[in-house]
Amino acid sequence: MSSDLLDALTALEKQKGISRDVLVEAIEAALVTAYKRNFNQAQNVRVDLNLDKGTMKVYSRKDVVEEVEDERLQIALEDAIAINPAYEVGDIVEEEVTPRDFGRIAAQTAKQVVTQRVREAERGLIYNEYVDREDDIVNGIVERLDPRNLYVGLGKVEAVLPIGEQISSETYKPHDRIKVYITKVENTSRGPQVFVSRTHPGLLRRLFEMEVPEIYDGVVEIKSIAREAGDRSKISVYTANEEVDPVGSCVGARGARVQTISNELNGEKIDIVEWSEDPVVFVANALSPSKVLYVEVNEEERSTTVVVPDYQLSLAIGKRGQNARLAAKLTGWKIDIKSETDARELGIYPPSLENADHALLYENDVYSIEEDGDDNYEETPYFEEDEELKSEENKLEEFDLYSDTEDN
């Protein structure tokens, strides 16, 4: 063995972070296997690799016993004493058995082991790097596609974007730059495998953290997210700082912040609502951009009955029930939406004095990206216990602000 191997192992230790001792142990173990395979030996052997001296020796190892049953693995006590009087039963006798032409085999084996260990070390470094980035957002470049997956280059590794994690309305082409969310990192026999997503709600959360300083700093908190990727999403936000408007912070000046996020998600519509621990307020906000007249809460069944103006029923439900479905996911409450006329016939609305606590006393403060970017909100009283019902004409004027915010 030449000093070149020592130099190579020292360089690898610096460049790849692989301990030289670990490599030496691996080479010695591989040389034992190579010796048994190439010289048809079944005996126990040990390889001593001395890099400083540039020497390599093979020693056979035999157990000292009183009666020999296998000469390849055992040696009689009297024979062992002839070698060294200090030997006793149970000791191990070593004898050098290095073949003359073992150097060539050793060099080839050492090269293979080093190459394999370097590959394993690089895989380990990549795995450790990306396993710590699970639930994080990264930039990638589309490299190739097949019928089931899209492969995104992240630099040191190629991530898999399964078809189920792709936004159906998006078209991906090689060399496109996209942001993806790391959902899972696995350490497989073929190396680290990174799985990413474009549909995960976590992607929306991370985009808001990147775009809204108040969220990144923890002043504004995202409480929940409901998402139908590529079409529409709802997020609820909250702040304990009374001087900060959580919805306005996410919207930005003239809707700039939320519009940037929407553009990244291929025009996905985003409703931002203020979170409240009061389910009446929270459910009403979640049904944006629809206006809500009344919310009745059933704590035991964790369900709500919501009354909306007749002309806003389709807006509250949304296309194919999407608005109501997202609101239910966002709040965690079941939502049964009824028009004002149906609610009157059922005796649900107007509420009795007993149920007045469940009445929504103000319009919900919401932002929908479908609006024109105006982030000024009003709180207009609508229902009071001792107030006579308003005429349909007055109600139409009061809710006209949101009457055309969604195509149904």
Description:
With 408 residues, this protein is an alpha+beta fold. It has 13 helices and 16 strands. The strands form 4 sheets. Strands 7-6-5-8-9 form a 5-stranded antiparallel sheet. The radius of gyration is 36 Å and the shape is elongated.
In short:
The chain is an alpha+beta fold. Helix content is about 35%, strand content about 25%.
Task: Reconstruct the topology from this structure.
Layout: H1 3-16, H2 20-38, E1 44-50, E2 55-65, E3 74-76, H3 77-83, E4 92-96, H4 102-131, E5 137-145, E6 149-153, E7 158-162, E8 177-188, E9 191-197, H5 201-211, H6 213-216, E10 221-228, E11 232-238, H7 246-251, H8 256-264, E12 269-274, H9 279-286, E13 294-298, E14 303-308, H10 313-317, H11 322-331, E15 334-339, H12 340-346, E16 366-368, H13 392-398
Parallel strand pairs: 2-3, 11-12, 14-15
Antiparallel strand pairs: 1-2, 2-4, 5-6, 5-8, 6-7, 8-9, 10-11, 12-16, 13-14
Helix pairs in contact: 2-4, 5-8, 9-11
Question: How many domains make up the coordinates?
Answer: 3
Which fold name fills CATH's third level, the topology of the largest domain? GMP Synthetase, Chain A, domain 3
What value does the average pLDDT take? 81
Order of helices and strands: HHEEEHEHEEEEEHHEEHHEHEEHHEHEH
- How many β-strand runs? 16
Query: Ranges with pLDDT <50 over ≥5 residues?
Result: 361-366, 370-408
Question: What kind of oligomer do you see?
Answer: single chain
Indicate the proportion of strand residues.
25-35%
Structural class: alpha+beta
Shape: elongated
Helix content: 25-40%
Strand order of the largest sheet: 7-6-5-8-9
Give a short account of the largest sheet.
5 strands, antiparallel
Region (Disordered): 369-408
Domain S1 motif: 135-199
Function: Participates in both transcription termination and antitermination.
Biased composition (Acidic residues): 369-390, 399-408
